[in-house]
Amino acid sequence: MKKAVLYLFITLLVLAGCQSNSEGSSGEKMNVEPPDRDLAADGLPEFNEKVADLPKTDLEIWLAADYVNTAPIKDAIEEFKEVYPNISIKTVGIEWGDMPNKIKLAVSSGAVPDMGHSHAFAMGAQGLAEPVDDLWEDWGEEDKFLPGGIEDVVWKDVKYGMPIDVNTTIYLYNKKVFEENGITEPPKTLDELVEVSKKVTSKEDGRYGIVTSASGWSFFGNVVAAGTNNLKFDGDNITANLNDPTIVETMEKFTGLATKDKASPVPPPQQRQTDHPVAMFGSGRAASFISGPWDIARIKNEFPQAYEDLATAPLPGGGEGSVLGGGSLFIPKGSENKVASFELMKWFVSDKYAMRLAKEEGRHPVKAHLYEDEFYDDPLLKPYVDTLQSAIPYKLEAFPEANDAWGKALRAVFDGADPKKQLDKAQEIAEQAIEKSN
Amino acid sequence: MKAESVTQHNPSTRPKPRKEFHKLKDYTSSYLFVLPALSFLTMFSIIPIIYLIWLSFYSYSLPSPPEFTGLGNYTQMLKDKLFIKSIGNTLVYTAGSMVIGLSGAIAVAVLLNRKLKGIRLFKVFYFLPTITSEVITAMIFLWVFDNNLGILNYILKVAGVENPPAWLLQPGTAMLILILIGAWRGTAYNIPIFLAALQAVPQSLYEAARIDGANAWKQFWHITLPSIMHILVYCMVMSVIGSFQVVAVVDILTNGGPMDSTMVAIKHIWQQAFEFNYVGYGAALSFVLFPFLLFVTWLQLKLSSGKDK
Question: Is the pTM higher than 0.90?
Answer without folding.
Answer: no
